[in-house]
Predict the 3D structure of the following.
Amino acid sequence: MYEHHVTENGIVIVGGGLAGARTAEQLRRSEYTGPITIVSDEVHLPYDRPPLSKEVLRKEVDDVALKPREWYDDNDITLRLGSAATGLDTAAQTVTLADGSVLGYDELVIATGLVPRRIPALPDLDGIRVLRSFDESMALREHASAAQRAVVIGAGFIGCEVAASMRTLGVHVVLVEPQPTPLAAVLGEQIGALVARLHRDEGVDVRLGVGVTEVRGEGHVDTVVLTDGTELPADLVVIGIGSRPATEWLEGSGIDVDNGVVCDEAGRTSAPKVWALGDVASWRDATGHQARVEHWSNVADQARVVVPAMLGRDVPTNPVVPYFWSDQYDVKIQCLGEPEATDTVHLVEDDGRKFLAYYERDGVLVGVVGGGMPGKVMKVRAKIASAAPIAEVLG
Ligand SMILES: Cc1cc2nc3c(=O)[nH]c(=O)nc-3n(C[C@H](O)[C@H](O)[C@H](O)COP(=O)(O)OP(=O)(O)OC[C@H]3O[C@@H](n4cnc5c(N)ncnc54)[C@H](O)[C@@H]3O)c2cc1C
């Protein structure tokens, strides 16, 4: 069995987001009494990101801290905020920070999340924004309150939520997506079309199957040019084309990185005493594939595995049914299980706005996606967990 030895260095967690906070919480809950240090490049206390594209953007919420500062004091957790980790030496068991300080560790947890992708060819103009952090959300909402016309590039979850929140603020929004529907890669085109319908009903100008060739302006953005030649006036452009794992600081460390930090099914990386979880981590799944998940619930699911593994204790083996949600207007889109765009989709309810769909692969129920149907989504959890035949749920 894995042996965990505590020294004065204790456990160092790099990344002060949800994964960092959940790991620290789980360690104390597991009665680990050694030192815990959370290192974050942000100056804020660890906070929650889902509200950034929803309530924060709509000016309904300002405080998204996961725990108050006293919680860290009470639990004897040291916060090193505003100091990025810049290097890792796995032989010496040290992490170097941007301010030059060097932290030794008994165990290291990598929880650095993602960096939003930008479009390198775009000119450097005011009014072009991405959304990942609290500061970016506050700056975007400031900008959105003065904006007349926004173009959102990319209809993934963040693009769709930003479009919905800005529409609610009264901004004219064009949502541009090269795929045939929003969310096509995740939920498939059939359900993607229902999401497009929802946005159109709310007055969003949804442009599908087109990309962006150029963004123009002098100092400040004023026009977005699409691949079909359309010129859209815009005083705000939000890029929502996905994110990449924040792993630059691991260069030269020897840690295996391939679309995220490569981990086994308990979060062990390629180096001893180094673990990873959350959006940055690519865990081996039950089928032996590496998978990186960018959803909130997955973080706590992984913390409940990585912490006992790190402490040399028994790891829970009961399978978790993956879950995520997205709020767009008054419709909560929820997904349970692991639907894929290539699955057969059975649309079992659709009232023109709300919907429920079962996803089938090889005759088995692999997932459910609902829009505004929370009870009905949750009701099939056990059927997904037991890989029920689709005929059983279609009844
Ligand atoms: C706008 C938005 C809305 C979302 N909405 C939903 C939703 O509705 N439903 C859902 O299921 N999921 C949602 N998510 C996803 C969910 O928030 C993430 O899965 C979750 O935040 C992942 O947590 P994490 O700790 O792995 O990464 P993060 O929360 O990104 O935290 C990583 C932290 O590490 C810091 N860091 C990075 N590099 C370094 C370094 N070198 N040194 C020190 N610190 C560093 C980062 O600045 C950051 O603070 C949303 C995400 C965003 C951005």
Observations:
- Residues 14-20, 39-42, 49-50, 52-53, 84-85, 111-114, 131-132, 158, 246, 249, 278-280, 294-297, 299, 324-326 surround flavin-adenine dinucleotide (CB under 6 Å).
- The chain is about 25% helix and 30% strand.
- The chain has a mean pLDDT of 96.
- Residues 43 and 105 are 22 Å apart (CA to CA).
